Amino acid sequence: MFRERHHLPSKKGLAMSDLIYVVIVVAFFVVSALYVRFCEKL
Amino acid sequence: MQASGWIQLVLFVVALALITKPMGLYLMRVLDANGKTWFDPILKPLERLTYRLMGVDAGKEHDWKQYTFAMLLFSMVGCLFTYAILRLQHLLPLNPQALGALTADLAFNTAVSFTTNTNWQSYVGETTMSYLSQMVALALHNFVSAATGIAIAAALVRGIARHSAQTIGNFWVDLVRTTYYLLLPICLVFAVVLVSQGMIQNFKPYTTAKLVEPYTTQVPKTDDKGQPVTTNVAVLVQAPKLDDKGQAVLSNGAPVMADVAKLDDKGQPVTTNIAVMVDQKVETQSIVQGPMASQIPIKMLGTNGGGYTNANAAHPFENPTPLSNFLQMLSIFSIGTGLTYYLGRMTKNQAHGWAVWATMLVLFLAGVFLCWWAEAKGNPIHQQLGVATADGNMEGKEVRFGIFNSALFATVTTDASCGAVNSMHDSFTGLGGLVPLFNMELGEVIFGGVGAGLYGMLVFVVLAVFIAGLMVGRTPEYLGKKIESYEVKMAMLALLILAVDILGFAAWGVVSEWGKAGLNNTGPHGLSEILYAYSSATANNGSAFAGLTANTPWYNTTLGLGMLIGRFLMIVPILAMAGALAKKKIAPPSAGTFPVSGGTFVVLLLGTVLLIGALNFVPALTLGPIVEHFQTLQGKLY
Hints:
The structure holds two protein chains of two kinds. By secondary structure, chain A is mainly alpha-helical. Helices cover about 60% and strands about 0% of the residues of chain A. Chain A has one helix spanning about 15-40. The radius of gyration of chain A is 17 Å and the shape is rod-shaped. Chain B is built from 19 helices and ten strands. In chain B, strands 1-8 form a two-stranded antiparallel ribbon. Chain B has a two-stranded antiparallel sheet with strand order 2-7. Chain B is globular, with a radius of gyration of 26 Å. At the A-B interface, helix 1 of A face helix 3, helix 4, helix 15 and helix 18 of B.
């Protein structure tokens, strides 16, 4: 809710870092789906 | 601890008790796919249209795996959608302040934060988010992440209540009905009430006001191209001060420290570039405007907590009056308290619902009393200096709300997974700050986040029943269902994920350079700042200790991962437990059945919650706020 110091927002376009974060999000949910199987078998 | 505080506390508890049954009964209708509500003439066609557009067969229920996959898919798509808006906000409409796109790591952190109902904000809302981002990206998640939590709780309760069933409900139906019939109507009415108290709602650019007392501040100097001007300076480090003979100078037995130039391996001074600062006279102030009243009701009701402004509920637009403060606190608990009644109704054991409610109330009151007492008692160093001794610890508190309403708000917001604040928790005393930290580490099961509080508490209920079974040597039974190894494994998995996530990331943070670089305080208070950040992220609370500079790629990424793990890897075993319980037969109560109502059960549940919370987190808390408390008594601050 509160931060004392912060970066200024970027005005740059989309970059390689976007690809990395999108992959992180998708990978997490794929792992979660596998985790469903893990819980089922436990 | 003034009389006005006691009166307000009694009023709060009475109001909480009074709304429990009506809210629970309404939840019964909302969470029943065929339930009738007053809004059916208006909302039923919209509900049907939504299902048609989504291609959902509302009449078909899900087993626990289908329910879980639907929830995960919906959350992933929502997260990516929000990420895209935040990264492209400079190209999108409703941006009168011409705010730029968020950095990639901040957009990731924020998208995850709102998807997981955390609302941790590593940014300043009024200088970062366009109106479109606030209304579409963030407010959308405020509704649907809250609805997701309620849906999960409903699925678990159905699992407990159903007899030999394969299904636990339809995720899409629960999501849509909760959003349309519960959250939207209440928020609409609540928004009007808040506007009547002085909250703003407009699309105007920010207002520029002329200051009555202009002041001078320092800002970075820029060149003709607008780039910051820097200069090369020597890096200083602290080292023991030496006398003429090269001996360390001591004061009271401790070495006196002095700034000296840092040297590299070759003995040369290490230098760094820093910004050149120049004086600037400030004669005007920018006053935030925008669609605030449409954001705040769901921020509180959905236990989201993400502030429109940086000051959150301490801002006079965001929390204008004592009445708005009271209603905002009550709204945080309103769905959580109603869900305990819903539990009782669904399981046909209302006494059990009230026993869970009573357990939550006891934990809530214990937190309020400790936090209020610690803040009212104040800082002993202030007392020695004679600084406002009668007022208690007013540092970091909004004068309009004072000690009691700050302590109550801090307790309520961390009992639930809200995270809104009307005071700065970083400025609380050691013990005052311990309360919000401990509340989050218990998993926010005290009325809790919408849905998350109930399903978290039901995990403890399963463990309490299991422990009781072990104590008396009988097969544990919960409301006629045998608790077997699978349910206990799933319950433990959910609790262990919470502990590993919080303690693992916090441990990484305190030993790494990127972690320590964000600290604004040293010693136990610094540890508390990092521990608080990961507790808040994992428990999907979103409040911050406010002393940590967390808008860095490392913090944004690790806190984002902490939120994802704390939300979804906890929900999966809970839904697995719901599926397993749904399949079981309900046996009629017998003389050997452990009663899940009454004082004995409340004490057992309290013990289970506190014992597991204590076992997991007391070592870390001892090194943080508890050490800080004793060192404050010795006159040492950090």
